[in-house]
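Contributing new records

If you add data, match the layout below exactly. Sequence lines come first and carry their own label; structure lines follow with theirs. Keep one chain per record. Anything else will be rejected by the validation script.
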Amino acid sequence: MTETFKNFIAGDWVAPTTGAYFENRNPADWDDVIGCFPRSGPEDVALAVASAQRGFATWSRTPAPIRGEVLHRVGDLLVQRKEEIARAMTREMGKVLAETRGDVQEGIDTAHYAHTEGRRLFGRTVPSELRNKWAMSFRRPIGAAGLITPFNFPLAIPTWKMFPALLCGNAVLFKPAEDVPLTAHLLVEILLAAGLPPEVVQLVHGEGSVVGRAMVEHPEVPLISFTGSTETGSIIGTTCGRMHKRLSLEMGGKNAMLVMDDADLDLALDGALWGAFGTTGQRCTATSRLIVHERVHDRFVQMVCDRAQRLRLGPGLDDQTEVGPLINEDARTKVERYIGVGRAEGARVLIGGERPPDKRLERGWFYRPTVLGGVRPGMRVEQEEIFGPVLSVIKVGSLDEAIRVNNDVKYGLSSSLYSRDVNAAFRAMTDLDTGITYVNAPTIGAEAHLPFGGVKQTGNGHREGGWEVYDFYSETKVVYVDFSGKLQRAQIDTEV
């Protein structure tokens, strides 16, 4: 019998006011129904916001080091349940177990890092320009934070947003992607088991166009953090701008790996395969473009094709699988559409470009790893985010040209350079117009204690992860203490 799950609102697991549910299915086997989850509505969001405000009233007054201790316990519980959560995540999202274990580990790292920040929410004390006057700043929480998260990192990305928000003293409203509701359910269970006060976290399942929209438009949700498409982020940005909300956007990418003629090609090969086909290409940091120097182009592309076409497709729970399915039918249809676009523009399908012929994979949303050759700058497959196992190869004649090609897209999340030349490495570090650059490593592999995010249409300037995210989830308050016993007028009574 299929299990039915609930929202977590006002300190209790409750059915949606709509009475409606949606099915959560395994993308590797669409006949496998994982559970039924609430198809919530605006009324559920309103109830969650009211509860979050009550939770905020108490949690915001809890000392930050104690808030950090709760998050440390969350990390410890994630350690204990790591394998269980990884297997549940693979079943509902599709990526291989090695990756979902890494996904959980990132949540563990984020929890333990957040714990330490509970003793580091620094303010500043600075000299006043007047005598007998003290000037300082400190950081304080904001309110109920609305968190809207994607499917591709069902645990890691929610923790990137949630743990800093909680550490800073905010309550959170959590709207996970419809494709991965079970992992979100398990995360909230762990938060509660770790001792988080129940009304500090609200979990509301449902469609982004309904639940996400209601959360963004609610006047008593003062800050929103969203990870997803640039198109949806633009809509959210318009609403938040009109309503004067604080907003963090982490959106698309069209990331490139630059392989120069002096590169270690075997090392670059491993990086290209992992960057392009890890998570079936469903990462905002995935290596979507391969920019190769003309002197090594033919040799290196052949190396990539030889290895990529031997990658084993299958269910992520199978230890032999190297590439899992796409998340759903629409995702595979989008990839197929872009392969058609690439062919129409003159690109050549070197390998892949089709569904796998294996009948054992027919019930899942599988697509063969694909390499497109003959891609020129400006082609749609070179400019637009595909979010699937498709690698577009562009030939260049120099590092200067490679940098120009890398930068000539609307996104700017991640980039990568393979070269033995230290001068080229430092050129890449400064001239590649992305928020993240790797040298002799692929475009994926961010670490939890460093800021994560990009430039241009990848985001709006804020960062996830590291120390910078704590600035987003807190406000700076400035305090002046005048103990002179008389009126002192700044800028007027200043002595020279």
